[in-house]
Design brief:
By secondary structure, the chain is of the alpha/beta class. The chain is globular, with a radius of gyration of 28 Å. The chain starts with a helix and ends in a 15-residue tail after the last helix.
């Protein structure tokens, strides 16, 4: 490691050279090294010939976008290491299939090979670290390279664990507000960088896409809530709550990558509370406010007593089921809406052009978004164009299909986003709710439903937090479960006072936020197949803040939003649902049921557990998922209201699984982080 640090310190660095293959990369690297005085001019031709001859005999690619060309000649008097970064990766037949962008050129006299052995091991260890490779790719000068190297040394040799590892932020302190204070202390160290790190093009693309991805559910949930509450809480209230809560959460939360939004169980809860208030002749908004006050208090108490540490008993088993459930709900809602369009068309016995155009717009948005998001790995266009299309793909898909619908508006009319014409409450009431309209006995009785609401918010918020903070996302900044729960609790209390809907962590939107800010690479799994892996996420507060500022501004330009077809937003729903399934091992194991056993990829769990055991474990998860789907989509409102209890029951189910499956097999199937052995490593 010392030799690498010396090489970076001495300026033995050549950055962003243009090359189309390894030969041109080596020639240009040595040419620039000679020009900058790293190598003597008389050694140039011999070094190039020796390096190219070594490449011909056996490629020096070691995987992880890297290669180690080396040559030892009498013309060289001392060992030398030159770091070379290519402007664009080149395909060099790497063992993991990742194009090469980094070269560590090892040169010296014949006896220097032994001195470089330790350096080879250090290079292999460095390059297996995704975060270090990300830093290598974005470093603009020698100082940035040295900083990246020192950061790696601090995390490995000084044994500082990545903050996103299992259990971080979920320790029980035994002190009142102990976990909350620890969360504030950890996150305060990252607060300034949370804003600096959001100033990039990836944040812009994520903001524009998620603005519509958050606006559409807000309008949809607001419309449904208006029906469930007799029009007392509607679209405007949902938009105002989304903007206000989103801005406050982006500024004050511990994990700003989480997006708050309306969720189905809370919608069902609010509808039942409205009918209960009507049956008991109680003023709904005032009663709703008292339930919200109690819910807020209970959530703050849970945050103060480190209750989120109970999430340690939730494992990947539960996280995967919950994640797939939320993704399937988005896909189901998109498909259901399109089917409803066709049913309406046939029922009215009218032309079906609008229904078919809606289908085309939805599928077109989905297809273009998916295709462009994968364009980064394409061979077409130049590098920066591929990056732009991949980052802005979902937004470009939405814009293209909206323009198509607008162009055809005189021929075919489709349903567009339904938004109110002005900013006022749905019933024309004042914004502030009078909580004292409710009788005293009802104020205390509100504690009963508040307990159920608190359990629902607690589970939804924390499970989504676990999914966002998953070690597979390689987050570097500390999570803050207790702080986040307290912020959500306070926001629910404020929203209750103004008759606004309660918002909580929205799983699919939050995961879409993480994916939108992620830098990924595709790796080849031993035995066949590919897998997309996150190497870095641009953690920041700017995107969450900007998304909800745009939602707030949309309240000032409501008529402009009416040009966006609902079918395009259904396509966005479909895209978000499908993308959320990416990397979910439960879903991957489900696909094995339809795969030829001889073509199974050699993933870590397939190498460590018998196929029969894997299928049985997957079957248990599938049964749990089907039960949760039945509860979520049940026409019985009371059954749907019990959704959080069924989520909580996944913990004892997982404990029962311990008695059925071998610990060794469970260690492979239910591991929190994909083991390093899954990746292809360089070996001598």
């Amino acid at each position: 490691m010392k030799r690498l640090k010396d090489a970076f310190s001495s300026g033995h660095v050549v950055l962003d050279i243009a090359a189309s293959d390894m030969e041109s990369a080596i020639r240009e690297a040595i040419r620039q090294s000679v020009a900058e005085g790293m190598l003597p001019e008389q050694a140039k031709d011999q070094v190039v010939s020796a390096l190219l001859r070594r490449e011909t005999e056996a490629p020096t690619t070691i995987g992880h976008a890297s290669a180690i060309p080396h040559a030892y000649l009498d013309v060289l008097t001392e060992p030398l290491i030159i770091f070379v970064r290519l402007a664009h990766p080149v395909n060099a037949g790497a063992p993991d299939g990742i194009p090469v962008q980094f070269l560590f050129v090892l040169l010296g006299p014949p006896g220097a090979a032994a001195e470089h052995l330790d350096t080879l091991a250090s290079i292999a260890r460095l390059l297996s670290n995704d975060e270090f490779r990300y830093d290598l790719g974005r470093a603009g000068n020698r100082a940035a390279l040295l900083e990246a190297l020192q950061r790696f040394v601090d995390q490995t040799e000084l044994s500082i664990p990545p903050v996103a590892k299992k259990g971080i932020g979920l320790e029980y302190t035994g002190r009142l507000f102990g976990g909350f204070i620890d969360d504030v202390r950890r996150r305060s160290m990252c607060y300034a960088s949370d804003f600096r790190d959001g100033l990039n093009s990836k944040s812009l693309s994520s903001t524009l896409f998620l603005f519509f991805a958050c606006l559409a559910p807000a309008v949809t949930f607001g419309g449904i809530m208006g029906v469930e509450t007799g029009g007392q809480i509607g679209v405007v209230e949902m938009l105002v709550a989304s903007a206000f809560c989103g801005i406050v959460y982006a500024i004050c939360s511990g994990q700003p990558l989480i997006i708050l939004g309306g969720v189905g169980p809370l919608l069902v809860f609010t509808g039942i509370l409205y009918r209960l208030s009507a049956d008991m002749q109680l003023p709904f908004l005032s009663t709703y406010a008292w339930v919200g006050f109690w819910t807020a208090l209970l959530l703050v108490i849970l945050a103060a007593t480190d209750a989120s540490c109970l999430m340690r008993y939730f494992t990947r088993f539960t996280d995967e089921i919950f994640s797939v459930l939320m993704a399937l709900i988005f896909i189901y809602e998109a498909v259901r809406a399109i089917v409803a369009t066709f049913r309406t068309s046939f029922a009215d016995a009218t032309h079906h052009d609008a229904a078919f155009l809606s289908l085309m717009l939805a599928l077109g948005t989905f297809y273009i978004g998916m295709t462009l998001s994968r364009f980064r790995r394409s061979n077409y266009l130049v590098h920066w164009m591929r990056e732009f299309l991949a980052d802005f793909g979902p937004m470009l898909a939405l814009a293209a299909m909206t323009l198509l619908a607008w162009w055809l508006r005189t021929e075919v009319s489709v349903n567009t986003l339904e938004v109110p014409g002005s900013i006022q409450t749905s019933t024309g009431r004042t914004w502030l709710v009078d909580p004292f309209e409710t009788p005293i006995w009802a104020r205390w009785a509100a504690l009963g439903p508040a307990m159920l609401a608190a359990v629902l918010v607690y589970l939804t918020q924390n499970i989504t937090g676990r999914l966002v903070n998953s070690p597979d996302h390689k987050l570097q900044k500390a999570p803050a479960y207790h702080l986040d729960l307290a912020v959500v609790g306070i926001l629910i209390g404020v929203c209750s006072l103004f008759g606004l809907p309660w918002l909580v962590a929205a799983t699919v939107r939050s995961l879409a936020h993480v994916r939108g800010l992620a830098t990924t690479e595709e790796v080849i799994i031993p035995g066949g197949g590919t897998q997309e892996r996150v190497i870095h996420v641009q953690e920041n507060r700017v995107t969450g803040l900007a998304i909800h500022v745009l939602i707030a501004l949309s309240l000032l330009a409501l008529p402009l939003l009416k040009v966006v077809p609902m079918a395009v937003l259904y396509g966005v729903f479909l895209y978000m649902g499908v993308v959320s399934l990416t990397g979910n091992q439960f879903f991957e194991r489900l696909t094995l049921w339809l795969t030829d056993p001889g073509l199974y990829p050699r993933t870590h769990y397939l190498r460590q557990a018998p196929t029969k055991i894997i299928h049985h474990f997957t079957l248990v998860q599938l049964v749990c998922l089907v039960i949760l789907c039945c509860v979520t989509l049940s026409p019985n409102a009371s059954l749907r209201l019990s959704f959080p209890l069924f989520i909580a029951l996944l913990v004892p189910v997982r404990l029962l699984v311990d008695r059925v499956f071998d610990d060794k097999h469970l260690a492979a199937l239910d591991v929190d982080e994909t083991p390093q052995e899954e990746e292809t490593h360089w070996s001598a």
